[in-house]
Amino acid sequence: MISDRMAEILRALQTSDWPDVAGEVAETLGVDGIAISAGSRPGASEVLWSSGAGARAFEDLQLTVGQGPGPDCLVGGTAVRVPDLGLTPAGRWPALLRETPALSVRAVFCFALRVGAITLGVLTLVRDAPGRLTPEQDGDAGVLAGLLTRRFLGLGDAWTPSAGRPGAPSDPALPAPALHQAVLHQATGMVSVQLAVPLAEALLRLRAYAYGNDRPLADVARDVVARRLRMGPDPSPGQSPGTSNDPGTDQSPGTSTEPSRGPSPDPNPPSPAADED
C-alpha cells in the first residue's frame, strides 16, 4: 500500500510531460535530494535526472570512484540502505568514504530500476542527517522506482495508483504488464545471444533502437521475437551502424543477419552486495 500523496505524484509522472515534482517527491520520502542513474555496470552509468546539489554531488562521486551504495545496488539488484554513512566500515567503500565528509550527505538509500532479473539503473535518495526511512517512505520509494523504470524504458502505463488499492477497478484500456515483460524478456535474451553481450546491455540496445526509430519498445521486442528484426553488432571501422559485411544480404538500418553467437562469459563477474539496513 502506498501513501495517498505518492499516489498523486505517480499519476502526475504518467502524463505525457515530465512534471516538476522533485520537491514533492523529496518531501514525501523525507529526503533532501533524489537522483536517477542508468547503466549496465558500475563506472558506465549516466545520471538522467537529479534534484538537489547533494544528490548530484554524491552521484558524481560514486561515478568517479566506482564504488558506493549505488554501484552495489546496480550489481546486486537489491535495495541498499545506509542510514548513517558515518557508521559504515571504512573497508567497504574506502575511496568513497574518504571523500564523503566534504559533502552534506549523511544517509543514502538506493533502489534498483529493474525489469525482471535485469537491473538497468538506480534511484538514489540522499539525506543531510542520519536516519532511516519509515516503512511507508520505504514502500513509496520502491513503487516509485518501478514506475520510473517503466517510464524511462518506454514500457507504457504498466501500473496505475488505483491498481494498488483494495477493491479498485481495473482499467481494460491499459496494456497487460505481464505480457509486455514476457515478450521483452524473450527479446532481451535473443539479442544477448545474437550480440554476445550481457542481458542488461542487450536491453539497453533494444531501448536505444526503439528510441532512435521512434517506436514503442514493446513493438520492437515483438519484432525481435518474431524474427522480423535482428539487432546489428557494433560496426567495424568504415562500416555504418547496424549493417553487415555480407553483400548478399538485404537489410534495413539497425538490423543484421550475422549468425548467432553464444554469450561470452564476463571475465570479471561482479560479486553481489548485501542489503544494508
Explained architecture:
The protein contains 9 helices and 5 strands; from the N terminus they run ααββααβαββαααα. It has 277 residues and is an alpha+beta fold. Strands 2-1-5-4-3 form a 5-stranded antiparallel β-sheet, with helices on both faces. It is globular and about 55 Å long.
- Total number of helices: 9
Whole-Å distance between the termini? Answer: 21 Å
Oligomer: single chain
Poorly predicted ranges (pLDDT <50, ≥5 residues)? Answer: 155-180, 236-274
Mean pLDDT value: 74
H-E order? HHEEHHEHEEHHHH
Tally the beta strands. Answer: 5
Main sheet: strands, sense, barrel: 5 strands, antiparallel
Helix % is 25-40%
Large-scale geometry: globular
Strand order of the largest sheet: 2-1-5-4-3
* Integer-rounded radius of gyration: 20 Å
In terms of structural class, how would the helical and strand content be classed? alpha+beta
The amount of beta strand, in percent, is: 5-15%
Question: Which labels suit this protein?
Answer:
five-stranded antiparallel β-sheet, 9 helices, 277 residues, globular, 12% strand
